[in-house]
Amino acid sequence: MSRVDRASYRNRGGLIQKLISAYKARRFFTRAGENLVVKASAEFRRVGHAVLEVGDNVTIQDYAFFQLTMPEPKVFIGNNTVIGRRNIITAKNRIVIGSDVLIGSDVQIIDHGHGMRRDMPIRLQKAAIGTVEIGDDVWIGAGAKILMNVKVGKGAVIGANSVVLTDIPEYAIAVGSPAKVVKYRE
Which residue is catalytic, options 114, 117, 183, 185? Predict the structure, then answer.
């Protein structure tokens, strides 16, 4: 009989971890499902009206950073999803991450960018604001970047260090910078 893989990201921790998770759930989340694990070093910066909702059995690993800033930030994360170590999730509008999503370490998910008109310095321009949608059963490899106005379809795989600038179809495997579909899951 083979042993069940008990990956470290599914380790729910002891009493101290449960207390840390409960505190962070009350302090930073507008809705938190059952069995939320938020590591002590995870950081949250949000405006008062921000929406941050997570489903059941979500894990947010060490040094993950959430920034929810003006004008109307909303982040929704489905059930059984893992936000990896040192992830950066930055929302000015709307980011949706589905259920059963595995996100490797050092991933960035950003729903906005800078204005780039030539008639004024970039630092003085208003932000370009969009959305990001990541479907259920997606695996995002370490170091990937998911940028604004992108939809990653259900079951897709994003290769390590890929930069996703356009939509990725369901069950596609996309790699590179910019990410391109190389094949589909069987």
Answer: 114
